[in-house]
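REQUEST FORM: STRUCTURE PREDICTION
Request ID: SP-0412
Submitted by: Lab K.M.
Chain count: 1
Length (residues): 418
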Amino acid sequence: MRGLAVAVVGLGYVGLPTALSLWAAGATVLGLDVSERRLRDIRTGSVDLLPAQHAALACTESAGDFLLTTDTDVLREADAVIVCVPTPVTPAYEPDLAALRAACATVVERAVPGQLLVLTSTSHVGTTRELLLEPLARRELTAEQEVLVAFAPERIDPGNATHTPERTPRVVGGAGPLSTRAAALLLRPTASRIHEVQGPETAEMAKLWENVFRAVNIALANELSDACGHLGLSPIPVIEAAGTKPYGFMPFYPGPGAGGHCIPCDPYYLLGRLPGDGTSAPLVHTAMRALRERPARITGQAAELLAADGLVPAGARVLVLGVAYKAGVSDVRESPALRLLSLLRDQGTDAHYSDGHVPTLTVDGRDLVSVARPQDTEWDLVIVHTVHPGTDLDWLDTVPRVLDTRQRVRPHAPAGTR
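STATUS: Completed
RESULT:
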């Protein structure tokens, strides 16, 4: 890696840790992002990273081989280019490739003979061919001859110190054997091991398979959790009991839905390439609909808890505890809490939120501010959405009604209450 210049396009939750791993391995990193604000946040350390990654980022401040820029011309100076831009979905749950198309077009336009180009952004099968290989060929830059091209989907779990990228295997599929091998060597410092596959399409489908699997099982865990509630059971002891089986079972836990950059989005990149009537993947269609509707189900449970004591949602003081899509991060992309707060307000609820990682939040065009000391307010109901490490929950014992969407705060209480 010494002396190798690697451009990382997109310095978000994937690109920044990737850039730090490559820099730590000895590469000169050219970090490229279209957002000046993102670059400022990186320079000041105001980004979601694990402690070890923050330490590495601090070390780059005095280094001359870790460049942060919006200048796309630096791509011509790179030996390798790694594309790490987001692939969200539209409000209609259709794949949104705008950022990826723009990034790939820029990379292709500035590609030079001898470069290795690696796409990591999750997308539909055929993306690498459509956005890199075919446009490069039109420039007479043929893969395996003038340039090397591969797809290597990211596997980064923000805020998880157990499954850091360096401890996680990575899949690589190149346009040919030379591309696969070159990408494997480049990414070796960023993974525990490299699993090579034949062709980018196999790697693309592998990433979709991973996250469709998770989405379906999360939806199933929510459904079985509701079934436990109807039967007077708490789901966590049931899951723990089922988890004693050493084969054929993997525990998934109930929650408020699915948020973040992967589970609520990636399955649509598969569904978007299948017949739109839902007949080709009915189980996936049903699971995604169930995840979308989960906040509405929780809103109904909240109304039921209030009604049990003669209260109605209109005017009730309700707190949503934690709004980040997962514990330990400040990311609210696709967080079920956004929809939950919107639905509560639609019912006339005096809804607020408290999250030390998210000081402000915009819901339905209205700016909300996190309640700094929720224990100082008398709440009619607290809905536990996300519990960050170190969060004090003892004060919940004084709250008359607690709806724990994850069934983990009081895991052995009846489902739906504390």
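NOTES: Residues 411-418 have pLDDT under 50 and may be disordered.
Reviewed by: T.R.
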